[in-house]
Amino acid sequence: MTMHYIPDGDTGKMFWFRAFNKWLQAHGTAHGFTPAALAKLTAKVAEFDAAMEANMKAKATSKAATAEKNVVRAEITRMARQYAQMLQTSPSVTDEDRGKAGLTIPDRKPTPTDRDAIHVIEPPMLWLDFSIRHQVTVHWGPNPGNERRNARPAGTFGCEIQCARGGIPQDNALWTPIGIETESPFLHVVKDTTPTTYAYRARYIGKVGGYGNFGDEATCTVSV
Length: 224
What we know:
The protein is of the alpha+beta class. The chain folds into 2 domains: 1-109, no CATH class; 114-222, Immunoglobulins (Immunoglobulin-like), CATH 2.60.40. Helix content is 37%, strand content 21%. The chain has 4 helices and 7 strands, in the order ααααβββββββ. It has helices spanning 10-27, 35-88, 95-101, 114-117; strands spanning 125-129, 135-141, 156-165, 176-181, 186-189, 196-206, 218-222. The strands form 2 sheets. Strands 4-3-6-7 form a 4-stranded antiparallel beta sheet. A 3-stranded antiparallel beta sheet has the order 1-2-5, with no helix packed on it. Helix 1 (10-27) runs antiparallel to helix 2. The radius of gyration is 41 Å and the shape is elongated. The mean pLDDT is 87.
């Protein structure tokens, strides 16, 4: 049988127990309760009252102790930061001293600038569509075979595309920039009168400047 008539919370229980005991002490004998049973209930109610009072005092003490702890913590934090700052700016303190004292050791290596960050981005891949005469559609990006899933990487402004007539050259000087695009693809129109092989390569441009690395080259023979 569910005892839903007894409140859930401790405080509610305490007041309910008191009221129940008061009523039972007045009417219990008429309903078959012995004096010993009634005395036992009264003692247990008193014991619970005492336990509740001790619990509330402990909570109050705990709150006071927590508040005191927070004040002292704030004071020692301010003091420790002040002393740590004095050590960090002292010319007599070495990095070894800082490490042993648990302080931050300054980075002695120059932090790469945003212009350098472009070099950690994977270079663009290329996919060439030369199915139409006199032109090559150069798809570039992380997924050039599917433009719907070919978003330009974060941190890039666009892509520089270069080509070389006659195939991949041995001399880098023979690569010719033919366009800087912010969206793929790039259309390259050629005017050769005979089928000609073209090589392409591409690299990203960072939003704050700087060029990334070139990806793999791609070649095709353009029909006329």
